[in-house]
């Protein structure tokens, strides 16, 4: 998929488009905002687009809706983790973003980090925490990773359930906060530096990175509230990294995208140390598209409007298994 500033896409060729939004995850509120923005953008370009909330409507209704393709504006579980992608594969409805396996891998932070590490890509060291960890084991993790460190659910987004631990005595409470949202909890070494994010579009060798954004949050606290509901966080795009470092971060984001087998679009979150070493944190395969979201901001810096970006993403909707290869009854 090639992203250009003035795409020549005939809305009529897209057919009836469903915009999946809401859902059952902890990020439902943000998903609704993303979905409403995407829906308005598609309709403004003459696309026959309709909202569909899988938390309120059944699988049978989705199958019967007659969608020729869908834009997945769901975030988190049941939408970004491969489950919805698998359902759409079964229904034969092309969808935006990564396929089943890549979506599942990217949603699982430990699996993502293990794969990146295997391919030599830099990511912070981590350890898994369990309910039966003793205080001595919590202390050992803190000593090994160093303080401060980050404790978070293995499969949540938008900083939900995340705690920055500054003392070993806080480990138990941080674990319990994350474990309330996920059976698997990860402790990750804290990287002190600049917080960056970089969208990637395309697939395989055609994947390219859009401009890097530098995030400057109050007290370096880019939490759920500061991400979506305040105007105090600063977003610098261009990120003023210098050409060489900007290209290095972009190249790393694209390689991380390819290693996971992602396609369509995604957003890599990166920490940059004072000496210019980037560390990959995670890959978001269904990024936010709200008024505070970062992918539209980066796209604008590349000369691509919100509406054009959405149109291009949905035009690239596809399936893991090509539609012509689907089994049909004799």
Automatic annotation (TrEMBL):
Keyword Manganese: yes
Reported function: Cell wall formation.
Lineage: Bacteria, Pseudomonadati, Pseudomonadota, Betaproteobacteria, Burkholderiales
The protein, known as: D-alanine--D-alanine ligase
Listed HAMAP family: Dala_Dala_lig (MF_00047)
Species for this entry: Cupriavidus cauae
NCBIfam families: D_ala_D_alaTIGR, PRK01372.1
Residues annotated as binding Mg(2+) 2: 282, 284
UniProt record similarity statement: Belongs to the D-alanine--D-alanine ligase family.
Gene name of the encoded protein: ddl
Cell compartment(s), UniProt: Cytoplasm
């Amino acid at each position: 998929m090639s992203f250009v500033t003035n795409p020549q896409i005939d809305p009529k060729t897209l057919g009836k488009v469903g915009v999946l939004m809401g859902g059952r995850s902890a990020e439902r509120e943000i998903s609704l905002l993303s979905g409403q923005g995407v829906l308005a953008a598609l309709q403004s370009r003459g696309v026959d687009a309709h909202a569909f909330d899988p938390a309120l409507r059944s699988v049978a209704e989705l199958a019967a809706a007659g969608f020729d393709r869908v834009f997945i504006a769901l975030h988190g579980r049941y939408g970004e983790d491969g489950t919805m992608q698998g359902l759409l594969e079964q229904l034969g409805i092309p969808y935006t973003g990564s396929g089943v396996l890549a979506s599942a891998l990217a949603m699982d932070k430990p699996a993502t980090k293990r794969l990146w590490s295997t391919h030599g890509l830099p990511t912070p060291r981590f350890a898994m925490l369990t309910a039966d960890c003793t205080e001595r084991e919590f202390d050992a993790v803190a000593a090994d990773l160093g303080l401060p460190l980050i404790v978070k659910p293995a499969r949540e987004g938008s900083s939900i359930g995340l705690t920055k631990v500054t003392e070993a005595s806080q480990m138990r409470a941080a674990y319990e906060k994350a474990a309330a949202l996920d059976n698997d909890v990860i402790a990750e070494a804290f990287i002190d530096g600049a917080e960056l994010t970089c969208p990637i579009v395309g697939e395989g060798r055609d994947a390219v990175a859009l401009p890097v954004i530098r995030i400057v949050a109050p007290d370096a606290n880019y939490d759920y509230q500061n991400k979506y509901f305040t105007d105090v966080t600063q977003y610098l795009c261009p990120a003023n990294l210098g050409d060489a470092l900007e290209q290095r971060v972009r190249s790393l984001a694209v390689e991380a995208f390819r290693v996971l087998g992602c396609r369509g679009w995604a957003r890599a979150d990166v920490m940059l140390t004072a000496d210019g070493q980037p560390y990959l944190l995670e890959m978001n395969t269904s990024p936010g598209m709200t008024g505070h979201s970062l992918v539209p901001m980066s796209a604008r810096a590349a000369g691509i409007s919100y509406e054009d970006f959405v149109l291009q993403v949905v035009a690239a909707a596809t399936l893991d298994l090509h539609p012509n290869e689907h089994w049909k009854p004799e």
